[in-house]
Amino acid sequence: MIDFYYWPTPNGWKVSIMLEECGLDYRMIPVNIGKGDQFKPEFLRISPNNRIPAIVDFDVPGEPLPVFEAGAILIHLAGKTERFHPTDARARKEMLEWLFWQTGNLGPMAGQVSHFVNYAEGEHTYSRERYSREYNRCLAVLERRLADREYLLGDTYSIADMAAWPWVLIAKPLGQTLEEFPNVRRWRQTIKERPAVRAGVDLGKEYRRQAPPDEEERRILFGQDKR
Description:
Elements lengths: L1 E5 L3 H13 L3 E5 L10 H4 L9 E4 L7 E4 L1 H12 L7 H30 L6 H21 L13 H11 L12 H11 L2 H8 L12 H8 L5
Parallel strand pairs: 1-2
Antiparallel strand pairs: 1-3, 3-4
Helix pairs in contact: 1-3, 1-6, 1-8, 4-5, 4-6, 6-7
């Protein structure tokens, strides 16, 4: 059994998709980031960076094992199930490169675009343009990678694809058309048709935001410092 601490966001979808793809037995525990659940002491013991997603794996020797950060969780689950990651040294190297490319480039850039599109409309023109250009650049990197292969690692669907895909799924709401990226568009659609991917994205859809955050939610989401 795995406890899955989750809120429906692209970062959370990476792990919900992997759990569904592997058919693992898990319990979803919602962490309402707009209400401050991520700062509760019991959650900080699992995720010291107060971010979702996180898991606690009970199916391990010894004490239950907490894992935080989506990339680390994907690597843990891939090793646990021996699925969606190559064992060949060269292919594994490429998997790790593209996984960390997502966590260090595509995800953060798309996340910043999302912030300025969804929470600062009409403000900070330079910032919005800066991150939109970087997101566009990352899509171009992905386009070149997919020019002669079905998935990021070739013919093999892996956790590298699961990590990157949610941030491409939301391209249109971020103001980015995929018309100029036909390889990315094809890859996006191929993965979207997987039943486990649809189930992962639908997980907790009843919690998705239906209205802009009020002032208290904005303070919780964006007003944190060392205090």
